[in-house]
Amino acid sequence: MDVTIWATLDEQAAAPRGSLLEHWFRTAIDYFFCDQAKDDSRSYVLVTESISGQREVRFKGVQNNWPTLADELRRQPFYAQAGFHEPAEGEGEWVDDIGRVGGQHEGRRGSHTGLTVALKAGAGIGDPKGCTLLVDFLAAALDDANPVFARVDFLNFHDTTDLEAALRRSQRKSLREARTHLRGYSWVTVVPSELATRLGGVSRLAATGVFHAVRELRGGGLLLQATETLAAYDDLAMRRVFQVLAPVLPSGIPGDDPARPNLRIVFEDASGV
Q: Over the stretch 204-213, which tens digit does the pLDDT of each residue have?
């Protein structure tokens, strides 16, 4: 897997978060894993109801067990994951996942819900059609959600953003302030409605010429796509995104993080832009 899609919901979500979690899973499966989900030997599910690990639900086969999974997701469990893989060549042989869909509680006492998709794109990161599929998925999954944040990254499997790591901002602080300071920026960034207003809204952001696409989400927020393809998101494109979003980014001078040697950020204080 190489492409990761991350989204965060908070208590201002436009619908019950359990319903939005169910919608996230259903949309991801339909967009990316439809074939694997139909085969019981190529997909599995794990749901943990609480942080203590009580009442775990495990089974193979997503599609044939979808009513059970949907019911579990609507309960807004502490952790849920569906994994997808190709057929094994030999009996008992382990096969790595080619994709996963997940959701889990984040923040203090589950104040936020983190949503994830990880998949294997390979050369598809340079394919406009494949990249449009990624963006279309995120728009469809979050259109009615009023998300607090979302991003699409390449070879970044951390649940915190590169900017949070560089500024040494704790996840709890970032979540608490996510409608006041944008958590980060990526090839695709979803900006919550409060920050979109401060940036001038859809018309002003589209007029900057920095973004390949600016989409308004029905439930609130803007989806910003920096370049047509993920492969084209180079340092120049990243800097242009940073300069436009700087007014809503947290202040501070970013620093290196030994645990994350390939941070994709601009090493400047956003407050100075």
A: 999 999 999 9
Calculate ∠ Cα 163-21-213, nearest 5°: 50
Distances (CA, A) of 41 to 38, 59, 64, 201: 9, 11, 11, 47
Q: Residue 150: beta bridge partners?
A: 7, 190
CA gap 209, 131 in Å, rounded:
19
DSSP assignment of the chain equals --EEEEEEE-TT-SS-HHHHHHHHHHHHHHHH-HHHHT-GGGEEEEEE-STT--SEEEEE-SGGGHHHHHHHHHT--SEEEEEEEPPPSSTT----EEEEEEEEEESGGG-EEEEEEEE--GGGGG-HHHHHHHHHHHHHHHTTT--SEEEEEES---SS-HHHHHHT--HHHHHHTTTTS-----SEEEEPHHHHHHTTHHHHHHHTS--SEEEE-TTS-EEEE-SSSSTT--HHHHHHHHHHHGGGSPPS----BTTBTT--S--S-GGG-
Domain extent listing, the chain:
3-250
Beta bridge partner(s), residue 151:
6, 189
Kindly state the tokens that stand for 160. 């915190």
Residue 110, exposed/middle/buried by CB under 10 A (0-12, 13-18, 19+)? middle
pTM: 0.94
pLDDT tens digits, 85-123? 987 666 555 568 899 999 999 988 889 999 999 999 998
Amino acid at 12: Q
For β-strands 3-9 and 112-119, DSSP reports them as antiparallel
